[in-house]
Each structure stands twice: as C-alpha cells, then as structure tokens.
Amino acid sequence: MTTPPVRTACPYCGVGCGVLATPDGHGGAAIAGDPAHPANGGRLCSKGSALGETLDLEGRLLRPRIAGREAHWDEAIELVAERFRSAIAQHGPDSVAFYVSGQLLTEDYYVANKLMKGFIGSATIDTNSRLCMASTVAGHRRAFGGDLVPGTYEDLELADLVVLTGSNLAWCHPVLYQRLAAARAARPEMRVVVIDPRRTATTELADLHLALRPGSDVALFNWLLARLEANGAVDAGFVAAHVADFPSSIAAAREATMAATVSATGLDPVDLERFAQLFTRTERTVTVFSQGVNQSSAGTDKVNAIINCHLATGRIGRPGMGPFSVTGQPNAMGGREVGGLANMLAAHLAIENETHREAVKDFWRAPTICERPGLKAVDMFEACADGRIKALWIMSTNPAVSLPRAGDVAEAIRACDFVAVSDAVADTDTTRLADVLLPAAAWGEKSGTVTNSDRVISRQRAFLPAPGQSRPDWRIICDVAAAMGWRSAFDFETPAAVFREHAALSAVAARLGSAFDISALATLSDEGYAALPPTRWPLPAEAPARERLFGDGRFRHADGRARMLPLRHRAPAVATSSDYPLILNTGRVRDHWHTMTRTAKSARLSRHMAEPYAEIHPADAARAGIAPATLVTVTSPFGSVTVRALLTDRTPKGSIFVPMHWTSQWARCALVDTLVGAETDPHSGQPESKAQPVRITPFAPAWYGFAVSRERIDPATPYWARARVPGGWQAELADGAVPEEWRAMARRLLRAPEGAEAVEMADPARGSYRIAIREQGRITAALFASRDPVAVSRSFVAGALADAGKATPGDLLAGRAGLDMPDPGATVCACFEVGVNTIVDAILRDGLTDIAAIGEALRAGTNCGSCRPELAALVAANRAPVAAE
Ligand code: SF4
Fold this sequence. Notes:
This protein is an alpha/beta fold. The protein is built from 30 helices and 34 strands. Helix 3 runs parallel beside helix 20 (473-486), helix 8 (217-230) runs antiparallel to helix 11 (258-265) and helix 8 runs parallel beside helix 14.
C-alpha cells in the first residue's frame, strides 16, 4: 500500500512553497511541489527539490548533553530552569536572554515570547530575523502604523513595472522569480528594473539595471520622489485624504538634485531619467525589496524612501502595485506576528504602550510583563561579553557564525556564565560553546505553522517520527517554563492548542487597533488545525477576509493616515580607506541555505558552488596581484578569511562579494561574518552586512591540491574547503610547505588502507604530484597537487568515486575523461546534474538559441527552473552571431 503524501511547507526561504512529502518507510521521503499551494502552484526550486536528500540522521543531536556528556531530559530541563531562576533571582529578569530564529515555527516562537515577556518579565528575546528584515519592520511601522506587507505575490504578476531593489530574487526567492519571469514571458510589455551594485542572475530579466553605489538607495529614491512630483505623477487626492507629512518629505526629496544623485549613486543620468520615466508612467508598479535594502545602517530610511514613492503616487493596496518586502527566512513573518523581536509585544502590539502591555498580561494571566524593549541581537551579545547577561538560551540558530564580528560573538558566548542551545544538529560553531545541548526535532518531524512573505499561514506537518530523544521546540520551552514554576500557563498538549491561544490573543490585539487578526481561527478544532489549508491573514472572526491591505486608504496610525518621511542620504557607517579600500558585500548562493547544516548534505546542491569564494573585479584583482582561481585573503579590522578568487566584472570595481554560508565544518577559514563590523541601523538595530571596508591580498601557498575520497577528508592544511560529492567527499587544499614525502602525506590524508593499490604520477620539475587509490577494482580516492591552482575537471574526478570502476587510474590521473566519458564541467542544472561544458557544447554544436531549446535537448532548466537565469547567460555568451542578410 502506498503512503499518501503529507502536505507541508518548505523550511528554507520566505516564499513559503507548499511541499508534498511522501515517506518511503525507511526514514526518507519523496519530495514534490504542492500544486494546490498558492505560493508555488507545484513549483520548487533546486533547494526545495533536494529536500529529500537532507533527511538522514548523520550529524543529528539525538540526546540531551550536559558539559559534553549525555544526560536525561529531566536533568537537562531542570538544569536550564535552575540556572535561569538563579540568574533572575540574583540579577533580575534582564540578566537572562533568548536568541531565537526565523526557522522556528510560530507555535515555538509564541511560547518562547510568552515565557520571556510575560513570565520572566524581560524583553530580551531577539531573533536572527534581526539580521534579515528588522529594517522593514521599523519602516512599515513608521509609514503604516503597523508591520504590514500590503500586497500579495500575485501583484508581481499583475504589475506592468516591477522594480527589484536589493534583491537577487533569482537565487534567494527562486520560485517567486520564476512566477515573475513567467508573467513577463506572457506579457512582454511588462518592464523589470533591477537596482543592485552587482550584476546578478536576477539582472538577466532586467530591462534596466541600475548598478548603484552600495548604500545609496535613499539618494536614488529621494531623487525619484522629486521627479515623480515634477512629472505630475503625485496622486494629490490620495495624499490629501490618506497621507501625512507629504510637504516636509517632498521638500527633503527636492534637495536630491541630479548632480547630487549622480555623485551619491554613481549612476548615469540617462539611466536615472529612464527609470523616472518608467516609474512615472506606470500606474501598476510593484517595488520588491529585500536584504540589500534591509542590511544597512540606513536600512529603515531606505525602506521608507521606497514607501514614500508609493504613497505619493497612491500606488498601494490595489492589484499590481505597492511596496513589497520579501523575507529571507521561512517564518520571519510568523516571528513578527508573535512579537519575537526584542522591541515588539505579541500580535503586533507595542511594548511602549501601557494599555497594550496590560492587555497582554491579563490575557496570559501572567505574573509580570516586560516594561521596555529588550536588547537587540548585536547588543545582546555585547551584554553577554561584558557580563550583564548571565544565562543565554539559543534556539535553532548559529550566531557564532552569522552575527557580525562573529569571532567576538563566539567569545561572548564562551564568556557567558550559562549557555543552553536547542538544535537539531550536534556540531555547529555555536553548539561547541554550549553548557547544555537540547535535541530539537527538525523539519519533517514537527508540526506547526509558518507565515510567508505575502501573509499566508501554512501548516508544516510531520511526516517522519522525531528521532532519538528529540522534541519539538515548543515542547522543550514549555517543559522549561513548567520547571521554572509556570506549569499551568504552559500546559499545552499540542501545537494546535498553542495556535488557538495565539489566534485568541490576536482578537485582543485587534480590539486595540492591531491589523494582525486571525481571531477566526481561535476556535479551530484539532481536526481543523490538522487540515488547515494555506490561509492569508487578516482573518477576523466577524468581518470578511481581505487579500490586500490599505485598499481603502485606511492605515494603522491613530489618525488613519500613512506617514511619509523626510529623508536624507547617509553613506554607509564606515568609509573605505587606504588600508581597507574595497567594500565587502555578503549574501547567498543559489543552492545553499544559511550555515549549510541541511543543504550541505546534498551532493547535488554542493556541486553548484563547492567552495567559498570572493567575486573580485579583474581591475581590483590585478592591482592586488591576484590571478584567476588562486586564493585570496580578505581582511577587515576584525578578522580575515581565505577563499577562492573568482574574477568577474559582475561585481563592480571597488567592491567584492563573499557568500555567507561556509562554516568551520566546511572550510578552514571562511566565516565571512568575522569580517563584518557591528554598525547597526539606529531605528531597527539591523547590522550593516553589505558595506564593510576590507582589503585583499594574495594567499600564496607552496602547493594547491584537489582531493576526492569515499571517506570524509579532514585536512590539516592552512587552506581547505570540503563538500560532498556522489559516493564521497571532495576537498580543495593549499599549504605553505611542500611535504617531505608526498606518498605518505597523501595516504594519510586520503585514509588509504594498507595494501590498497596506489598509482602515482609525479613531475618534481613542475611541482606536480598525483595519486589514485584503487580498491577491488574501483577508485576510492585521489589527490592532485601542483604549484599552481589544480587544473582538473572536478566533476570528472569526483564522478570516478561513483562510476563503479569505469574510470581507469590512468585516465583519472591524466585528469581527463575517456572518449566515452565527456567532462560535464561545473553543475549548472542541479535537478538533472547538467554541467556547463555539456550546455555550452550543445549551444555551439546544435545552434541552440534559447532556454527552451536547451531544455528540450538536455532537460536542463525544465524542473525547478533555478538555473534558468544561468542558462540565459550561457546562451547570450555563446550563441552564434546571426548572419547579416
Ligand atoms: Fe523553498 Fe525554494 Fe520555495 Fe524558497 S523558493 S520556499 S527555498 S522551494
């Protein structure tokens, strides 16, 4: 009998795609997109499609641990409760803190927030969402009087102009990008503008790419606002009826002259005028913004500069128009709804408002309530370092990697008197620092809800048993709360019970003016919760649901009006200097997620980008003496990383880009957040993660290496980065000293058993050494070493591990495929594992002229579609020129 699929939601980005998971009965599951989910209509991106490859239990934390030894749950819970109780008794409620995560489900978040704010009586609970979209929250609250995303994904499809600013949608929100690309294909008259210092995969869709200087978005949108007024695009009736502070805002915008704007942004006046003309004449305009806007010391002003343009033109709350924030994490929005940030109360209520505080306290029947905002993420870890925080509980996140000045954050965690960490993964940079580890159930093993970027609440449903002694986070939090003496307030039996209380509290909030109202769900039965379909809020009990907000021109400030803000451009907090002449931009790659604890399990995903790298403009590289494919050390005042140099003009002169994902488990020295300073936005507390001055210097080793093995490779070299490949592991290596004896070193590194056949090729004059290990007729490991970066097909060599003896040691050591084994090159299409060489060959050989033809010939791009922007770039770069008639 076949098991029916379980409807759940993807655990990665804020698009919030619906997933069908069909358990295989052996701990795994087949994964498909849910055709009935409104976010994705059956599509999944490369990460979502590979979820089934990430379900194994390798590396899982399966039992509680205290000081490194296994412990019983009761002992671990009692210890956490006791250490929190005693810190509070001796030093007060502000001496303890929770640092939580946009990966938590709403039910987890709700009880964590309730425990900290209503029972402990502090607001020092903050979340890694602070690093993601706190500036949007602050901008929404300033403009709208509440943290409210006005529109829906459908608006991107209905728009005639989509402006994407600070958003590499193609890689970071791939299914939403595909919806936009499909709409664009169906309506070629739609226009797309991309505003980003880099030429990213998203710019493949752009009619106009504005490669502005990092951090100059306020200058650009201020200028745009003044141009909109000059062009007669202001909706005077809407402004008069629904918007406050227009005169002061427009006066500030008028200061942004063309000359000042060109100087601040570095943009061409012709491109600026084109942008202004497009925006002026297009009623149906959506402006999508994301981390490129938020992660800035002027992030909140950037958000408001965008919103100003929409308020002035009245383009908000109607189909196909509005400012639109897309969140990075799967449940950043759910966290906002329960008040999981240090400056928010539950259900979008305000800590600063006494009536709100009393209402929440009464509803919870709580002994106390926080009276002021708590410490935001960066400040929280500073308080750990200087001893103000005595007990810290980190849930489902890895701040020793992901916070700015990550090295100092690791030291702060180490310095804290008591640290508990709940996580599904045993070994992370943060779990290594914990006094107590609490095993949490992972995606697929726990149940609850998440809210995506367009306010749709989706169920995450368990389809696998929780392994070992792991428990859902909400259960762990309630157990600790009970042990601290608050059992009756936390005696939830199920996540459904938590959700009902959350929904009931939203009714209280709605009576106080909050737009977050899901009171219609407050009486949901367990069966109703189990069957809950994707549901957009607001969903009041006694009024009809609405798709879009503000269509009636009524905002959430007390007078019902939105606020425009007078804004002025501020450059990033720290300027470049002769010591640190380049701007470091950080961000995501297409096929990895956060600190790779899940995605690195998939060999398929790891083959898109197998190594940490720095995108550097060729002119900057030449100036620093850095050659293609060599290694580069990136240094800031706070630390350094060593990564592969990727020379490309996709990154502008004066900037470099380094991805954020690689941790100590995957590379020797690539924690990019050790470079980033702790400057934050004054309104949101969000760190400036995309404008850190740095310098680059060559890392000049005596030799470079590339190794594959069926066993995990654990190098001791000063540079290494490893990744999974089908049938084993690969590692890039570099060392400052040539080994005395290559063979002995290689056998140690590759863990070759005594007696295993070794075939070698050495050329001492050229400084090259190669060895292949064969056991029972199959290649089990190999090392390629040379004075220069190793020029060998990674996919071919790695493929030899899984090819059942087809590759000979001779072919392998020659580093070339046999005639019947063409080298596919680096993976572009992760779904069908189609490499760049295969694609370029087909374009050149068969004269393919578009993505559809590539799909027909090779299947590449026909499943998840995440590689389609890269396919378009390959077609553009390799298509034969059309002969003149
Ligand atoms: Fe998951 Fe990809 Fe959908 Fe994001 S776009 S929710 S990562 S499947």
